[in-house]
Amino acid sequence: AAPDTNSHTTSSCNMKAKILYLLLVVAVVAHAQKIPEVTRKELEAVLETKDGANAIVQCLIRFKQGCDPRLNRIGNYVPELLSNNFRCAPPLCSEQTSGNVLYFVKTMQNKYPRLWRQLITNAPGAGRR
């Protein structure tokens, strides 16, 4: 008896469809996650000094050991924030996070313009502008 190639092809297509569906679900869930919350006090404390601001910029450009884990997730959103002129609306940002992004941008532009330029020119996805 000849092998049933139709059932093999059908099960192969079903498996590919299931994998594609799973990848889509993972992509949707990953995209729906919000930028991690940082309190205004935490942000103000870190941006108080040039060293603190520099540490944030370096961690956003290239996350490494010793960086706050939240910066790794925030860093993943830098390309999207860059393309939106750092406007951050729901569902990506809560009202608090949106205010903190605005505070961060204004503080960096006014108090640490060189670090700001370094961030926007060297951040992942900066070349897409």
TrEMBL record:
SUPFAM superfamilies: Chemosensory protein Csp2
Stretch forming the signal peptide: 1-32
Assigned keywords, A-Z: Signal
Protein name per UniProt: Uncharacterized protein
Biological source species: Meganyctiphanes norvegica
